Amino acid sequence: MTTGFPPKSLKALVFGASGITGWAITNEALSYPTPTTFDSVVGLTSRKLGLEASCLPLDPRLELYDGLDLSRDVNSIVEYLRKVKHVESFTHIYFAAYVHSGWGEEDSEKRKEQNTKFVVNGIAALEIVCPNMEFFTFATGGKWYGFEFGDKVQRLVPVKESHPRIPAPYGDHIFYYPQIDALASLSEGKSWKFADIRPDAIVGFVPNHNPMNIAEPIGLYLSLWKSLESSPEVPFPGNESAYTHFHSDCSQDLVARLHIFASLHPEKSAGKSFNIADVAYPVSWEMVWPGICQYFELTGVGPLPEGQGLAGEPWARSHSDKWDIWTRDNKLRPQVLNKTCWDFMTIVTGPFAEFDRQYDIGEARAIGLTESIDPVKSYHIAFNRMRAAKIIP
C-alpha cells in the first residue's frame, strides 16, 4: 500500500569530515544503507579540503565546506552554518569533530573544556539553523573505559556500555563524560534524539594526517622496511605484552555504518551508547600482524627481544636521513613520513595494549547491525586507500 506522499527527504551533515570517523561517515552516507537514502551529504572541515583532495566519490549530492571552528561562540558558528546551502533542511547530524591535546592526565582540564564546548556550542547553533534536525550521532571511543590509563584502573572484560564509569581520580580526566552529560541534558524534551558510537582504535584512511590513525604509521613502517631492509621478516613494532593481549579494533567503514544505522532507527537507539568492532570475538596483534604484513609481501614476526635491534618508531626514525629521498623516489606526498603520527603507533602497540581491553558488541547486534569484517581486511582496505592517495608506494 502506498500513501500517495513522496518519500521523506533525508539530508546528512557531517562535522569533522576530514577525520578518520567523519571521512568514513561522509563516504558511507553516499551509498549506505542504499545509494538513495540521503539526497544531500555535506561535510564540514576545519582545514581546507577540496573534493579531489578528499578522495571521496565524485557525487552531485556531496559538498564540502571548510573553515569549521567550534571553539568560537554560538553566533559565529551559526553564521558559518548558514553558508551551507539549505542548511535548514538537514535532518541527520553526525558529529565527529574533536581537538587532540595530549593523553591521560596531560592538559586534561583544557581538553575537557575544549571538547565539551565543541558539543554545547555546536548543538546550540544547530538548534537555531536546523529546525528539521531529527538525530545526532556522537563519536566517542575507548577512552570512555579509561584505556589510556592502562592497569591503573580496574575494568571488567569484555567491556560493556552498561559498565560503570571510571571513578576519580582517573575518571576526572575523561572528557567524554561531560560531553555525554551535556548531550543528555540538551536533548531532554527536544524533538531530536542522539546516540553515542564507541569504537576502540579505528583502522582507516584520512586524506590529511590524523593523530588517531593507526593504519597510516603501520603502512609507512612496513613500506619503508620493504625498501630499506634485506630481510622480509619485519618485527612487530611494540612489545611482547602488547603482542598477546586482546583488543577490538574496528574498520572506519563499520564505525560509519553504525553511526548511520543508529540515526535511521531512533526507536532502537535514542539515548543509548554502542560499542562496535570488526568481529564479536577478541583479537590480538599476534593474530593479525602476519596478515597485515602480507599486504607488503613481508613476513610479520613477533617483537624483538629487549635490547636486540630496533623496530617500529625507533627503527623508522633511525632512517630519517633517507625519508625525503625515499618519498621523492616513490612519488609520494611531500613530508608524508614527517607528518604521520608515529607516537600513536607506539602507544597502540605498546602501553595502550599491555592489558586486555576487548569489547562486547551485543548492543549493536541487538539493534540490527550484524555486519562483520575480517580484522586483517580492515588494514588492507586502508592501505589500498593510502596507496591511491600517494601516502604509501
TrEMBL record:
Residues annotated as domain PRISE-like Rossmann-fold: 12-393
InterPro entries, A to Z: NAD(P)-bd_dom_sf, PRISE-like_Rossmann-fold
Source taxon at top rank: Eukaryota
CDD domains: 5beta-POR_like_SDR_a
Transmembrane segments annotated in the record for this chain: none
Name of the protein this chain belongs to: PRISE-like Rossmann-fold domain-containing protein
